[in-house]
């Protein structure tokens, strides 16, 4: 210890007093430990006995890591009830495997026979078969229920430890001591425990792993204060138990426990292989049994108390250096004193961050203040609610210290905080971090991976190339800083421009509008947008002065308001040259001829022609199309425009009346009955009637007339033969205008056949 009376001695004494106080405070919390794990105390743990696990769940006590694994258990529905049994079974009892068995509604076979006649035997047989299936289901459902209860216990423990691992712990406990001790000290608790951790994966499976190296003997919690308890006697056995590597429970560990009890306790005890039920009174004789179990309980502070005691012992040892970090909590120290203590211990002192620390993450004012304090202080306390950037600041500090060649140790009460911090550190620096968290297999693999990466980084580092790379990066950093300074200067310049007051940018328009700061001018333009959005965008090359004066702009607005089609067409007209214009005499002659033509046309024109002259071109073109269609229809109807009888035909009359809008009632009626002839012809065809050729009988009185008929027929045949046509083909040339076009003009073919027959006969006498 430092010389008495000096500052070193004062700092050591006060620091040692602080640690002893913390040790006593922790011991006080353990003075009344819970000795009966099955009591109704609010801090009573949750116990899962290995010998009480449901069927299908097996614990592997010899495994190095995984103790047991439980998957989610689903419910299975009961077997379906046959349709003809539904009215004979109490349905409410079917889905309860722990309740009474389902029964037929009738008490016995006799009652069944009385109420149900011929189907009684069949119902009974069907029920017996269904009941056998139900019993098998109920047995499996009860087994699944116990598995589900175990799963829910482990799942709850895993989730609770995820959130409160600083308050609760899960341990594998062995060596159950059952004893109704003296002074009403009832003991029903395990004496040897080893830490475990339940892990819940994405599939919902809970895996319970051991944490090797975290085994402890909780003898003080059970026997402290008893005159028959001598802890110093069994100290050697206790250390062997704590350092043993055999899994719990094992034969070796149970034998070692019995040897310790024989050394540290002056009371006789008996050993049993199985535990006694807690419902029975505790034995008067101390009873020991393996009785392994999983116990979820509040964390035991005995280890913390032991740690404080070891620290206090070291502080009281001779020539102990002053723990600067602890001493400045209880002693008012100056900067030179802290630097002196650090120098004596060979520790770094002064500004370990350097003049220009390399922070990979951005830092706000509060975070930058923490960095500045660390330049002059050996320790600071940063406190704040979640999300204020504490982990962010630590990540910057770790990165900057590693860049200076320092080694950094980060501790945390929870493993999750260390993982979050590591993820915030850039990937290039993260490989230099070694994470030691928890005691699971994944944590061991993670530790091994970190050590391998660190070793590989050290082994593969070429100092020469590393120096060149560092120089290049330093030059690039300087260039980026210069660029950043230029950009910041430009930003400042733009911000100053934003504060300038500009006069009206359109003074000829209104001196009170479009003036002030740039932001206010832009806002005025946006406010007037609904009134001026009809204006097209002004080209960027346009001059600031408008091309038209105010009077010219007013005149342009009036011209645009009076704009019509004729004026618009003038834009495309060209004034001919003098040589292209007619002479005055020619122009007068053309005007005179035009007037005479108009007068002649006016005299010859009818009312219809005058009406047509007033129609626009589109309607005249439509009438012309109707005219062409009319001529085509007239030709189909065998009317010739050159026929002198055309004017007398009904078709011509109909056309004239339609054009002149005359006799509309007459033609409307004809249109209404236009389907009547076709309907009558259809009825005649249905009755087997067709066209007939009337041939009168030839007698002596009309023989001369018959000779005339024959000569006319022969002349008609000669005509067709000279024209190259067969009279029988007459009806096949066209069927248009025939009353029976679908039948190939049979009337004409029949007439032509009759002519051939008549011409082949001799003339009548």
Automatic annotation (TrEMBL):
Keywords: Coiled coil
Biased composition (Basic and acidic residues): 230-243
Coiled-coil segments on the chain, per record: 144-171, 470-497
Stored InterPro entries: DNA2/NAM7-like, DNA2/NAM7_AAA_11, P-loop_NTPase
Keyword Coiled coil assigned: yes
Keyword Oxidoreductase: no
Pfam families: AAA_11 (PF13086)
DNA2/NAM7 helicase helicase domain location: 364-455
Region annotated Disordered, chain positions: 226-249, 724-744
Domain of life: Bacteria
Biased composition (Polar residues): 725-736
Name of this protein: AAA family ATPase
UniProt source species: Saccharopolyspora oryzae
């Amino acid at each position: 210890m430092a010389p008495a009376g000096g500052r070193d001695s004062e700092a050591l004494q006060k620091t040692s007093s602080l640690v002893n106080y913390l040790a006593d405070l922790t011991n006080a919390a353990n003075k009344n430990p819970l000795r009966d794990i099955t009591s109704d105390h609010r801090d009573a743990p949750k116990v899962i006995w290995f010998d009480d696990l449901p069927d299908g769940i097996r614990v592997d006590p010899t495994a190095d890591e995984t103790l047991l694994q439980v998957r989610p258990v689903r419910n299975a529905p009961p077997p379906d009830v046959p349709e003809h049994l539904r009215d004979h079974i109490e349905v409410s009892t079917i889905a309860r495997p722990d309740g009474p068995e389902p029964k037929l509604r009738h008490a016995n076979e006799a009652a069944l026979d009385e109420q149900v006649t011929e189907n009684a035997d069949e119902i009974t047989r069907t029920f017996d078969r269904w009941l056998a299936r139900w019993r098998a289901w109920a047995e499996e459902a009860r087994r699944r229920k116990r598995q589900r209860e175990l799963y829910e216990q482990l799942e709850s423990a895993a989730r609770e430890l995820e959130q409160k691992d600083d308050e609760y712990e899960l341990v594998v406990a062995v060596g159950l001591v059952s004893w109704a001790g003296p002074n009403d000290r009832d003991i029903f608790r395990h004496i040897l425990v080893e830490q475990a951790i339940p892990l819940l994966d994405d599939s919902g499976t809970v895996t319970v792993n051991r944490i090797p190296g975290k085994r402890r003997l909780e003898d003080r919690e059970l026997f402290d204060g008893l005159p028959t308890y001598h802890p110093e006697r069994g100290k050697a056995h206790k250390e062997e138990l704590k350092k043993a590597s055999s899994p719990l429970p094992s034969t070796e560990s149970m034998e070692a426990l019995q040897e310790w009890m024989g050394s540290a306790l002056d009371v006789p005890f008996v050993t049993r292989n199985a535990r006694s039920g807690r419902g029975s009174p505790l034995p008067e004789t101390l009873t020991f049994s393996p009785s392994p179990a999983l116990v979820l309980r509040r964390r035991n502070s005995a280890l913390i108390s032991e740690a404080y005691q070891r620290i206090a012992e070291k502080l009281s040892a001779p020539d102990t250096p002053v723990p600067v970090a602890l001493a400045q909590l209880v002693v008012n120290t100056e900067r030179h004193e802290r630097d002196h203590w650090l120098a004596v211990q060979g520790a770094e002192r002064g500004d370990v961050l350097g003049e220009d620390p390399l922070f990979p993450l951005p830092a706000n004012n509060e975070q930058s203040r923490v960095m500045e304090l660390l330049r002059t202080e050996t320790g600071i306390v940063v406190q704040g609610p979640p999300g204020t950037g504490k982990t962010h600041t630590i990540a910057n500090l770790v990165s900057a210290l590693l860049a200076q060649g320092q080694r950094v140790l980060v501790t945390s009460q929870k493993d999750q905080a260390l993982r979050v911090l590591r993820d915030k550190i850039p990937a290039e620096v993260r490989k230099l971090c070694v994470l030691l968290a928890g005691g699971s297999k994944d944590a061991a693999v993670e530790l091994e991976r970190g050590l391998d990466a660190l070793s590989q980084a050290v082994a593969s580092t070429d100092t020469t190339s590393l120096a060149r790379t560092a120089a290049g990066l330093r030059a690039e950093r300087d260039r980026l800083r210069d660029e950043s300074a230029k950009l910041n200067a430009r930003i400042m310049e733009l911000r100053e421009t934003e504060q300038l007051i500009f006069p009206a940018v359109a003074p000829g328009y209104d001196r009170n509008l479009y003036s002030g700061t740039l932001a206010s001018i832009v806002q005025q333009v946006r406010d007037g947008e609904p009134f001026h959005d009809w204006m097209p965008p002004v080209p960027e090359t346009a001059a600031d002065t408008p091309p038209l004066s105010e009077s010219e702009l007013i005149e342009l607005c009036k011209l645009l308001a009076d704009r019509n089609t004729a004026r618009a067409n003038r834009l495309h007209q060209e004034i001919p040259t003098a040589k292209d214009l007619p002479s005055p005499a020619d122009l007068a002659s053309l005007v005179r001829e035009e007037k005479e033509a108009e007068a002649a046309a006016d005299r010859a024109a009818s009312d219809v022609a005058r009406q047509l002259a007033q129609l626009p071109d589109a309607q005249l073109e439509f009438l012309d199309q109707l005219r062409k269609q009319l001529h085509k229809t007239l030709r189909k109807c065998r009317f010739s425009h050159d026929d002198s009888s055309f004017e007398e035909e009904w078709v011509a009359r109909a056309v004239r009346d339609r054009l002149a809008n005359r006799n509309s009632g007459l033609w409307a009626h004809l249109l209404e009955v236009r389907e009547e002839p076709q309907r009558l012809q259809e009825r005649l065809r249905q009755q087997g009637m067709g066209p007939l050729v009337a041939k009168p009988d030839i007698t002596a009185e009309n023989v001369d007339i018959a000779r005339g008929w024959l000569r006319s027929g022969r002349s008609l045949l000669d005509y067709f033969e000279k024209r190259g046509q067969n009279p029988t083909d007459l009806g096949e040339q066209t069927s248009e205008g025939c009353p029976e076009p679908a039948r190939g003009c049979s009337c004409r073919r029949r007439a032509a056949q009759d002519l051939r027959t008549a011409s082949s006969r001799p003339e009548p006498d």
